[in-house]
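Sharing a chain and its predicted structure for anyone who wants a worked example. Both blocks are below, sequence first, tokens second.
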Amino acid sequence: MKYYQPSITLGLFTLLLFIPVLAYAQQLSGVNQLTFHNAKSNHAFIGNAFLLQYRDKVYALTVKHVLLEANVPDMQSVSIKDHIAQWQISANNADHAPIILGKLLNEDRSEKLDMAVLEKDWLVFEVPQQPTFLTPLLLRRTPIAAGEMLTAVGCTYLNQASCLQDTYAGAFLNKENNNLRVKMANMEPTKLRGLSGSPVVDEHMQLVGIVSNVMKSKSADGFDFAPASTDYLVEVLDRLTANTKE
């Protein structure tokens, strides 16, 4: 387990522990499968990903720090085209055709690949094909009230042999910088490695964040769940749609 400051990344290294609740009928998330030009770096499961419908387009989303977990020494920035031959979202433990992703739309060679990516922890991809097994989510645009229940939907490395998509719920506390602080029962960050990139939704299945991080609790010992908010994501999507109109 690796710890990082000022908060503790749960990404693919360490994660929160909360109790699985009933699964959704619709498939909302899948696992990232990465094929590198150098096959020694291939990953069959490296975090989760999902789809979002924004205006009239569907995008694929996951976290930037999955690139850190890939641990490719010569990949030093948020730029993948020289390293990754194919990125796909696959259904874990289900026989569905994978979703092959297109261009990384917020690729940035000037953005250094280090723990600072947690401040803007979203990767946004084109989806050139018709989605095969995932239901695209819609974005919530209204503020979250304290006490609202939020749910992460995805799989971990620990349960990958049986998981299709598990759900993990907690109560929203407050927004803090780029993160949502959520209270989870019995938080044990070591036990849910791999959940990063999973969508975090409200009770109406609207997207409010992405599994990214944990923070030290302010009210007790232990940690709070700290998914990345959608602020940076909206900036990227609005920029993309504005460019399309020009």
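Comments welcome. The first helix runs from residue 66 to 70.
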